[in-house]
Each structure stands twice: as structure tokens, then as C-alpha cells.
Write a structure and sequence with these properties.
With about 350 residues, the chain is of the alpha+beta class. The termini are far apart. The protein has 4 domains: about 1-55, Classic Zinc Finger (Double Stranded RNA Binding Domain, 2-Layer Sandwich), CATH 3.30.160.60; about 80-105; about 115-170, 2-Layer Sandwich (Double Stranded RNA Binding Domain), CATH 3.30.160; about 185-355, no CATH class. The protein is built from 14 helices and 26 strands. The model is unreliable at about 1-5 (pLDDT under 50). The chain has helices spanning about 1-5, 20-30, 30-35, 50-55, 90-100, 125-140, 155-165, 185-195, 210-220, 240-245, 260-275, 290-300, 315-330, 345-355; strands at about 10, 20, 40, 45, 70, 75, 80, 90, 115, 125, 145, 150, 170, 180, 200, 205-210, 225-230, 235, 250, 260, 280, 285, 305, 315, 335, 340. Belongs to the krueppel C2H2-type zinc-finger protein family. GO terms for molecular function: DNA-binding transcription repressor activity, RNA polymerase II-specific; RNA polymerase II cis-regulatory region sequence-specific DNA binding; zinc ion binding.
Length: about 350
């Protein structure tokens, strides 16, 4: 009866979330305690529930969460399909949520219910979406990584983060075979094959393969510096606090070298494999980073980056960025021995040789 009347008499003492059954609280509280009693016999990874373990174990077996095989090839498909936009889902309730959120105007019987946030004017399409959103106000991070002490507000963010530790890369490029930990990185990578650049700057004629690249580029026009450093009080267009803390949480599994950002580690790993997936369409030269390919292509097109403060021009955006610090006085690279700041990372490395006794 509780299922039908939606009575939820049992509440979690840690976060207040309510449940219809006391046993559900015991499972839910593992999110707060970090307990993961269900261990994978193949890789040792732990899970809060037996069902989560069962889904994970499909990655190690021939079984897949796409139970319908094509009669002509080896591809398998999800069982639940949206008849309006043809999107597919692995669970029925995922399809139901999709229909309510995206097609309520055209699906008979659906009236999209809104779940308003009590702290701001945002409305969500489901109670679960509202709970996730409210964590932006409360700062709650109930999902802890089983490999390190990082915590996350969303379970999906935790899953993507843990792939940094496990090395699981489930998304495959059909053109070159390269694998990725996240769907969006595969989508962005595919544009290196198609040449698609869907994100265009409204200030100039440049286009980009990813929205983050467009946002960073736009700051050249606006002068926006949204990141304030808590240590030195300066404002930056990119986060630089790891310069002060020296934090480098991402280690290369091949040589042990540490990096402040996961992207830098992934780029570094290409030096071990020798892979150069980014090829110039004009001269056939290849590169291990998309940014280096873009800078190289400017040699063919003659593109210049103009300094807004003086009449200097540069063939590379990175050269303009380094030059512009002469005008702003920004010195983001600090020596952890004497505190002296430098505008370029190369200058800091040369300076550190004085402390190491390696000055030439």
C-alpha cells in the first residue's frame, strides 16, 4: 500500500531523504559512509548495491546491457525506443522521463510536472533532477571516489571520475579505433575526422569543435577573468591555484609523472604510444595534440593573432597569451622555494635550476 499512497515514514538521519521501507535506508546510507560491500571478482571495484555490481560485471563478460542483436552485424541495441525522436534507452523509466521532459506537448496523457527549487527560480522536470540541483545550494557531495578522497554531487560525475583510476574507456571511435572515457570526448574527437566546428565566435570568424574552446576564446575579446586566486587575490582567465598548491593528482600509469590536470596527463601519454591522431589536411603532417595541429595549420592560411594593447601580431594564440602578460603584469608561475613569479613556465623551470645547483 505504501507504494501506491507514496507514504515514506523512514528518513535518513544524515540528509533527511525519506523512504517507504527501512531496508532502503540501509542501502542509501552507504552513500554517506562510503561502504561498498559488493566487490567485483574481476577487478576488485566495490559497489553500494548488488544490482550496480551486476551491471558493472557485464563489462567483463560477453553479456551486454543491449540485449537485441542485429541479424546482419555484431552490433546490439537498447530495448526501449522513443517513437518521436528515435532515441534509445536501456531502461523503461529512462524512456518515460525522456518523454515527459522532451515530448510532453505531443504525447497524449502527459502533463509535464514542474519541481520548483525553494532557493532560486529554477524549475526541474523531476524530483531526482531537483535533488541534484539543490546540491549546488547546499554544497552536499554524497558520492565519494573509492580510489581517492574526492567527493561529488552527482553519481554520474563520480562514474566518469573513477574511470581516471580504472582506465576504463568504453567509447570507441569507429574511424581510428581510439577509445575514450566519456561520450562527449568521443563526440568532440570525431570532429577531427569530419572537420566539423559547430561553435562559432560572434566577435570574429573563428569556429571551434567544443564549447569550452569557444568560451576560452571569447575571453580574448571580453577581457573576462572569472577566476580569483584565494592565495594571491589576482584574477585569471583560467584557474591557476594549483600553481600555488603544487597539487598534481593525475599520475601517468606508464612512467609515474604527475600532472595538475587530467587533460595534460592524457596528452602526455601519447608520448609513450607514439600516437599522432591529428593530421594536417594540407601537408599530411601529424600531431599528438589537436591544439598543435591548429597552430600548424595557421602556417598554411597565414592567420595572425593581434595584440589589443600594441601593434604586435603572432601566428600562435599561445604566443599572444605569453606576450599579453607583459601588459597585464601577470606572473602565474610561482617558485615554490623563494616565491618569485614568472610570466612563462619555461622561465620558472630555468630559474629553479639555480636552487637545484644545475645552473649552466
Amino acid at each position: 500500500m505504501k507504494t501506491h499512497v507514496k507514504e515514506k515514514p523512514y528518513s535518513c538521519p544524515d540528509c533527511g531523504k525519506r523512504f517507504i521501507n527501512e531496508s532502503y535506508i540501509q542501502i542509501h546510507q552507504r552513500i554517506h559512509t562510503g561502504e561498498r560491500p559488493f566487490l567485483c571478482s574481476q577487478c576488485g571495484r566495490g559497489f553500494h548495491t548488488a544490482s550496480s555490481l551486476k551491471l558493472h560485471e557485464m563489462q567483463h563478460s560477453d553479456e551486454r546491457p543491449f540485449p537485441f542483436p542485429c541479424t546482419f552485424c555484431e552490433k546490439r541495441f537498447r530495448p526501449y525506443h522513443c517513437t518521436i525522436c528515435l532515441k534509445s534507452f536501456s531502461r523503461h523509466w529512462h524512456l518515460k522521463t525522456h518523454l515527459e521532459a522532451m515530448h510532453s506537448e505531443v504525447v497524449a496523457g502527459f502533463v509535464r510536472k514542474k519541481f520548483p527549487c525553494s532557493d532560486c527560480d529554477k524549475s526541474c522536470n523531476s524530483a531526482a533532477e531537483l535533488r541534484d540541483h539543490q546540491r549546488t545550494h547546499t554544497g552536499e557531495r554524497p558520492y565519494q571516489c573509492s580510489f581517492c578522497d574526492k567527493r561529488f554531487a552527482l553519481s554520474g560525475t563520480l562514474v566518469r571520475h573513477e574511470r581516471l583510476h580504472t582506465g576504463i574507456t568504453p567509447y570507441h571511435c569507429s574511424d581510428c579505433g581510439k577509445t575514450f572515457a566519456q561520450q562527449w570526448t568521443l563526440t568532440t574527437h570525431m570532429r577531427t575526422h569530419t572537420g566539423e566546428k559547430p561553435y562559432s565566435c560572434t566577435q570574429c570568424d573563428k569556429s571551434f569543435v567544443a564549447p569550452g574552446e569557444l568560451r576560452r576564446h571569447t575571453r580574448i575579446h571580453t577581457g573576462e577573468k572569472p577566476y580569483t586566486c584565494a592565495d594571491c587575490g589576482r584574477h585569471f582567465s583560467l584557474g591557476h591555484q594549483k600553481v600555488h598548491t603544487g597539487e598534481k593528482p593525475f599520475s601517468c600509469p606508464d612512467c609515474g609523472k604527475s600532472f595538475a590536470h587530467s587533460g595534460a596527463m592524457n596528452r602526455h601519454r601519447l608520448t609513450h604510444t607514439g600516437e599522432r591522431p591529428y593530421r594536417c589536411s594540407v601537408c599530411d603532417r601529424s600531431f599528438n595534440q589537436s591544439g598543435r595541429l591548429r597552430e600548424h595549420e595557421k602556417i598554411h592560411c597565414g592567420e595572425k593573432f593581434d595584440c589589443p594593447e600594441c601593434d604586435k601580431s603572432f601566428t600562435r594564440a599561445s604566443s599572444l597569451k605569453n606576450h599579453f602578460r607583459l601588459h597585464t603584469g601577470e606572473r602565474p608561475y610561482g617558485c615554490d622555494v623563494c616565491g618569485r613569479g614568472f610570466s612563462r613556465s619555461q622561465s620558472l623551470r630555468l630559474h629553479k635550476r639555480k636552487h637545484d645547483g644545475r645552473e649552466t
